[in-house]
Amino acid sequence: MYTGQCLGAYYKQGGDSMQTWRKLKTKVMQTWETTDQKVLVLILLGLALLAGMGLGIYRNWPQPEQPAALQAVGDEEMKIVVQAQVERVIAELYPWVQEDPAQLAVVEPPSFPAPSPAEARPEPEEALIFENLSWPVQGEIQIPFGWYRHPVYGDWRFNAGIQFRTGEEAVCAVLAGQVAAVSSNDLETELVIDHCGGWSSTYRSVKGLIVMPGERVGQNQEIGLADDGIVFFGLTHNHEPVNPQAFLR
Question: Domain boundaries in the chain?
Answer without folding.
Answer: 2-58, 140-246
